[in-house]
Amino acid sequence: MDLLAAMRLFTTAVDAGSFSEAGRRLGLTPSSVSRQIGGLESHLSARLLHRTTRRLALTEAGRLFDRRARHILAEAADATRAVAELDATPRGTLKVNLPVAFGTLQIAPLLPRFLAETPGVDLDLTFSDEFVDVIDGGYDVVLRIGALKDSSLIARKLADNRRIIYGAPAYLARHGAPERPEDLADHQCLLFKYQPGEAQVWRLSRPEGMVEVAVSGPIRANNSTTLTEAAVQGAGLAMLSTWLVGSHVREGRLVPLFTEYQTTPTGAQSGIFAVYPPTRQAAPKVRAFIDFLGRHIPNPPPWEADALPG
Length: 310
Fold this sequence. Notes:
This protein is of the alpha/beta class. Helix content is about 40%, strand content about 25%. Keywords: DNA-binding, Transcription, Transcription regulation.
């Protein structure tokens, strides 16, 4: 029995919901589809589908086989594509997932140049701050900021996600600029919401040691753009990524504080990564995109010049 062909037929029948619709999609008669799935069940010595006049329903064995079959079919397609593309010119659709603010501010302006350099590639972009499953989502590359979970995925670090404390001139004029890290405890701080109810501690470190300051303030949000705008309007001090604030600092709307320190909030990690499945590693379009980002996001990254003047 050709198991790959049987898996394709079986998953098509599950998606179609009936043998007649599966047959229409595959160019087979309903009886042929039924006969081949019956042969697969005999081969496996297990019933995979409950058949009714209206629909097909997966048995417990069927659900297990369906899940594993889809994974195997995807791996087989990736293996075929990897061999075909090993020495090929970059081409095809590159499916990329990006964080909303970082992707909009720092990656989107680079994309016309990437497309000019790789004319055989077109881009399918999804901007989202949700944690996505790279493989289940069918992504070629996912850009992630923060901690990476242990997995079989390949990750290339593009840059540090450096954070600095910023305040608007109006806020600093009203409340004064903090002179020591410990003074932050007496200021209105705008906080990123990592975990519900989690106490916020800002850590400021330099070679002489680290200071931890419990901070509080009027706004707690899970969106860094919101906190940036609130800081610009003078609502408080905010610890913000340098890639987010360049224009505000350049035009005088935000002032950096404690730039001699490395600063991190509770629960935060410091990296910006390009993540991709090992099955995509050999694809020329993936290599071209990752290498392009590596060339255009050097160390230190270009956005720090504006975010840390002088």
